[in-house]
Amino acid sequence: MRAPGLHIFMLLCLALSAANAPAQDSRQSVTFELELSKERLGVNERLTADFVMNRDGDNFIPPAFDGFRVLMGPSQAISSSWINGVRSYSKTYSYVLQPLSKGQLTIGQASIEIEGNTYKTSPKKVTVTDAVSNPNGAPSVDQIADESLHLVAEVSRADPYLNEPVSVVYKLYVSPSVNVSNFRPLDNPKYNNFWSQDIPLTRYQVEEGLFEGKPYRYVILKRVVLYPQKSGALEIEPLALDVSLEVPTEKVDFFGNRIYGRANKVVSAGQRTIQVRPLPEAGKPEGFSGAVGEFTFGVTTTKEVLNASESLQARVSVSGKGNLKLFQLPRLTLPSSLEVYEPEFSESVRTTIAGMQGSVTEEYTIVPSFQGKYPIPSLSFSYFNPKTEQYEVLRSEEITINVEEGPVAAVTPPATGQEPARQAVQAGEQFYFLKLRPGLQARQWTPFFGSVSHLAWLLGPLLLIPLFLVLRKKQKEREADFEGMRIKKANRLSRKYLSRAKTALGDKEAFYVALEKALHNYLKAKLSIETSEFSKDKIHSLLSEKKVKEPTIAGFVSLLENCERARYSPFSQVQMEQDYQKAGEVITALDKEL
């Protein structure tokens, strides 16, 4: 009795799942896309274009395929499956195409009707190059590297104003299928007609992004902020890199893993041109000094009330965002009865990828000589704002300095800002009398000959002769021991470079250069060999003659080989620490065995 009931229950479940499956499928969005087997090919190669949809449709209309010869197609392929009650459907129209000429060709839009709606694919561009030697074979390692590596210079804007900041970010895009093992710059760009500031990078950080619509990994290599100093078309020279990378091939190893091939490629970011706009002449204020940005301006003093002969500081300051290091501050003009020293310039400017921001200041030290009221007149500062594309003028407030105690001038300077003539100071406080009777006494004369000083000058040179002979003998002994001096010098250099290698841990090039020099000078001290004799075979034979054990010799030679390999291969922090520790152990062992 239970078996027929169970059978009926299973049939009901299958009917419900079949009824529910089309509803799930109907909720999926319709897609209709063009997929290309390659986007870069030789003029004698073939290209497969697949028009793929996830629903069945009618009235498929292919593009005209301008610039191509259709060798085959259209061929249809349909794929349908059920997974966990969800239907998966795919229908493909395929064409095999042959390019007719070199250049950049475009495959246009195809269209199809699905459930009463018309859908179209996006056009795609194909780059056709010179004929290749093996058109039907698998792409070479160099071809894959060319398609997988791109260096791009991203410029923040192509039409800045004169002295407006422009940021340039250099990014290296790498396809997920390849691995970059090392890279080095070949030619850094020169920024002629620009004021430039590099924005340092603490470390390289790999990020995910899109390049020409495809997923890539990228790393920022260099960031720089430029301030154009000349209007017109200005060139930014390219950055070039030599990149070592590992590229997957069509071959597999015994276990079925993909075999990677090594390749070296030189990539360049390309030369960029920006069109620099001159600052407008209309509305340019008098005394404009070239400031471009957004600023605030002010004049302040440390005191407004003081006594004569005391000092105060007057500060002229500009702060904000813009070319803070590339313009002159307005000069402070003061009455002639005030003693004014040359201003001290100071700056607190931070440069980011968006440009300079901070403040610049000139500080004047002022010392009044007389009582009175002295005006510090209002100053004006003008700048060009690239956001509003207008000039703006800022003015400071007039400040009055009140000198309360001190000498009184014949005429007190007015507080109107007009410059008075310097007045003569009242007599009685400005003249001093010299003392006519200084009270000098005559000194008794003593003869020089026969005195203690005479005898010291006479016998002193004779006493120095034995000392000179002793020093000369010591010098000859040191010169005769030339080999000993050379060994001591080599020992000192070995310790010096070994210490330098320890401080350079983490910096591959500096560490292995210092370590190699340390090993070099150690051998010069111990074995008396010169640089011309510095080869691994020579070292092995000399150490063997000195009865050094074979493991110690092998360890020393392997360290030298690591120093050589470090110039061409990447080395990790752990490897450098191991090599430094091994160098200490090998040198200690050599000291004992020699």
From TrEMBL:
Keywords: Membrane, Signal, Transmembrane, Transmembrane helix
Transmembrane segments: 448-471
Signal peptide start and end residues: 1-23
Coiled coil residues, start to end: none
Stored InterPro entries: BatD
Top-level taxon of origin: Bacteria
Protein name: BatD family protein
Species whose genome carries this gene: Robiginitalea marina
